[in-house]
Amino acid sequence: MQIGVVGLGRMGQIVVNRVLDAGHDVVAFDLSEEATAAAAGAGATAADSLEDVADRLGEEKRIWLMVPAGDAVDATLDELAPHLDGDDVVVDGGNSHFEASVRRAETVEAAYLDCGTSGGPAGADLGFSLMVGGPEWAYEAMTPVFDAVATGPDGHDRMGPAGSGHYVKMVHNGVEYALMQAYGEGFELLANGRYDLDLESVAETWNNGAVIRSWLLELCEEAFREEGTDLGTVADHVSGGSTGTWTVQEALEQEVPVPLIYQALAERFGSRDEARFSRRLANRLRYGFGRHEIVREE
Amino acid sequence: MQIGVVGLGRMGQIVVNRVLDAGHDVVAFDLSEEATAAAAGAGATAADSLEDVADRLGEEKRIWLMVPAGDAVDATLDELAPHLDGDDVVVDGGNSHFEASVRRAETVEAAYLDCGTSGGPAGADLGFSLMVGGPEWAYEAMTPVFDAVATGPDGHDRMGPAGSGHYVKMVHNGVEYALMQAYGEGFELLANGRYDLDLESVAETWNNGAVIRSWLLELCEEAFREEGTDLGTVADHVSGGSTGTWTVQEALEQEVPVPLIYQALAERFGSRDEARFSRRLANRLRYGFGRHEIVREE
Amino acid sequence: MQIGVVGLGRMGQIVVNRVLDAGHDVVAFDLSEEATAAAAGAGATAADSLEDVADRLGEEKRIWLMVPAGDAVDATLDELAPHLDGDDVVVDGGNSHFEASVRRAETVEAAYLDCGTSGGPAGADLGFSLMVGGPEWAYEAMTPVFDAVATGPDGHDRMGPAGSGHYVKMVHNGVEYALMQAYGEGFELLANGRYDLDLESVAETWNNGAVIRSWLLELCEEAFREEGTDLGTVADHVSGGSTGTWTVQEALEQEVPVPLIYQALAERFGSRDEARFSRRLANRLRYGFGRHEIVREE
Amino acid sequence: MQIGVVGLGRMGQIVVNRVLDAGHDVVAFDLSEEATAAAAGAGATAADSLEDVADRLGEEKRIWLMVPAGDAVDATLDELAPHLDGDDVVVDGGNSHFEASVRRAETVEAAYLDCGTSGGPAGADLGFSLMVGGPEWAYEAMTPVFDAVATGPDGHDRMGPAGSGHYVKMVHNGVEYALMQAYGEGFELLANGRYDLDLESVAETWNNGAVIRSWLLELCEEAFREEGTDLGTVADHVSGGSTGTWTVQEALEQEVPVPLIYQALAERFGSRDEARFSRRLANRLRYGFGRHEIVREE
């Protein structure tokens, strides 16, 4: 089948390659001519505008958006709108908020599939995990493409109606934060504990048969192998956090306790603040009630 | 090579089978004659006492203990003591506290290896992850057996001196608690969230290519397949907790923050207490300052 | 001076009484004629509509709203609108969200003061703590009334521009949740600990000179005196949570870690859910990897 | 009555003064001759050794120890031992672990009272809160002294048998950590939030009538008054932690969840570690799965 791919950054390029490898035709477009040319070099048909993408796809268009979540999605959809009708299918493969996806599904003429995509650049070889929300017929229509982009037929499924794909992906990311922090706590204790340990060896041993083996633990093993058991120059600063924040916000709405996910997010916030006010106040209060010496900044 | 295996419960029996399958000879003993007979049926030589185990092994004995952590280990070692000397090697494959292992390594005549064993009954087929502490020569001497019991050469390693194997296993279990709780929070939010989801499908999709894929997530998938997406009659009661408690205690000693591991442990404690006092007091205090109606038990 | 008080529930009635006691004149109105009559019995002038309130106050109206946060505030303001101009002052003494207060301050013709009110029914005798946001001149104009409603001149202050009063009150309530949970944890440990303690005696001793003495601790003391050291029939169910939720939401926006406030809120959520899904899954997973017996509901 | 006071640091000196002010006689001793002389200057009788203290007190000795918790208590008791019998009473007013107090109560010939003392240097004027464990007759015998050292008769009580006084004080301190952190989180949010607030004014307003008013909040007010609303040079480093650690350890033993107390303690640990390993690993893992740029130390 034929599919348009819009947005050819790292992830979009992987989508193009996997779809081409599966024997499908791709019409590719990116605001960067260079990125479009690269896709063409890989075997895709280059388009020079969104209108051109639409023209080349003809009737029953299937378009995969891999543009940054937020305004770029709306801008793309606005420009595509005149060319779309109810027989077309648009997939948003980015990290959009599920409420934005529900809104878009209601306003776009085409069938709209929100598609949570997990696996990162490693998915180039292995394929991704795809969590899809939207109309059943559209999901069926896209199945050959999902088979190609995902690890295979088991690597994608329709979660439910509009928004459910990005909803499940949002929660996935919240869990991801907590898993990273959980491994981090374990290794922090080992790094500061009673034994002089080779953490790469610990991670490798765990990855072979232990209950906590996982892909994230394989990445820990890789990190220790590449950075050293003390993580070398890697700084105490964790960027990102939007999908984790969304997860906690939704958990507040649903009144579901998510203490580990919350705390993992809070650790990120804390990592960006050199001098936590709450601790500075505690330092001062200990003088207030106990005349413990105040620690001062130099 | 020849090895004695003492303690033939579920885990001990797996050790026996894997060592036999690798072509080694096993002298097996359990306080239960039935368990000893079962091992003999699988190809081991049955011993009828610890003394008999020692006699049959001759010089340079290699003995694997798979008895319950605690007094049983000390009782077994006391009884074996007259038969051990510095050329022998004893492995403790159970969940002993690392400080007990350090103490035993100092008092037992033989070389003593503390061996954290992870993987559970599933290790019967796949092999275990073995984290070993103790003298290097003894670890080398046992390598053929470790190769057989573990998933292979990558599934075991010497972590460091006495106690380090059980130390790393203790931390492994603390991380395990947090991982379980992290997945649980994600699924709890999905189960109570905006969409009517098939959690087995969610878990399966995640297990195929998603960042958070892991063996524990495969067990989640299995749980939803076997119990239903609402977990059926599975109760809100989590038993166990000793290794998690040890991990937090050690983190307190080392002044390392482990908020996720702590909270995962606290959730277990909370699951066993039907009416948390702290919440009952909060309920009452809201009346105290705001005249909010007190919720009473019927 | 003369002031209109609209909304004569428990808190509104206290405002009327304290303002009257300070020698001011009150025009009182409530949708309940009974409540209006009660205020009249206490010395206020009864009004039979919002229009009547406005008419009786003449120029430079000062009106205190003590109606439930949310739609009731907007409905009241809509009905008052035709009678208000820039010389008038309206105070919202309820628990409105600060963003609603900012919006109202922008749309209401009169000067608008958002006034966080803390102290609960006990404020009838002691006076309240009032955190006020809005124009300085309006705060000044209301000072005699604030003096009367608060504990005195120290019991109220202008925090800043529109919304700041309710903002500070929101954070106050978040802290309140955490303080309640902190005391609760201490008493829960004492109630389940090694000694058979009289918790009223503990609280009383602490309230006399200990570092943690506070009004909330006095309410703990009262709770144990009135309910018994085991809290009798008080249930494990904590209602409420909106201002705490707002606090955590704002902390997420500002990327400020508030782990104690979050956890105190999560405990409330947890208290309303008889069977936490995350724990049920953990129970099941322990079978998955370790064949630990699953605890089933009867 | 007559009482010996041993240990004349800041707290011991306050005990001496309050007992003298109440009209009792004091025999004072400290290893520092200067401290002993100061007590003599205040009206106490100076002793030049522990034996001298014992000699001067005669029969039915009453001795208050205010020496640092730990070895100093045992050393003092060892030296006093030959002079003590069952009619004597020894009070340990320091922060000893309750298990040490139970042990001492069993081994010391005299009646032994463990006395948790809260209030800090401010107790010089106001008196302390005293939580006492030990034999009832001994508590009765010391009542006049407790009346003098505490805020009055309500400021002390017998909690129960040996150890219970220090047990209740330990939990008091755990709660204290959590209260400090709770206020700190609120002020941290206000300091980083949407409004430019005067935190001294916030604290003062809250201290006058708000639900969360407390002595610790008065100390916050003092801190902002003395350091400025941004806390000036006060560093993000919180020392101490032993009694909080004991509280969490005991809660682990009793399987009582204390998430706020734990997290408050973890914040202290975190404040002393410039680069948290867990966060450094999370930083690196984000590169591992998403090729997010690694933040490096310069």
From TrEMBL, chains A, B, C, D:
Function: Catalyzes the oxidative decarboxylation of 6-phosphogluconate to ribulose 5-phosphate and CO(2), with concomitant reduction of NAD to NADH.
Organism: Halogeometricum pallidum JCM 14848
Catalytic reaction list: 6-phospho-D-gluconate + NAD(+) = D-ribulose 5-phosphate + CO2 + NADH
Subunit (UniProt): Homotetramer.
The protein's name: 6-phosphogluconate dehydrogenase, NAD(+)-dependent, decarboxylating
PANTHER family (alphabetical): 6-PHOSPHOGLUCONATE DEHYDROGENASE (PTHR11811)
GO process annotations (BP): D-gluconate metabolic process; pentose-phosphate shunt, oxidative branch
SUPFAM superfamilies: 6-phosphogluconate dehydrogenase C-terminal domain-like, NAD(P)-binding Rossmann-fold domains
Boundaries of every 6-phosphogluconate dehydrogenase C-terminal domain copy: 165-298
Keywords: Gluconate utilization, NAD, Oxidoreductase
Annotated binding of substrate, by residue: 95, 118-120, 172-173, 177, 268
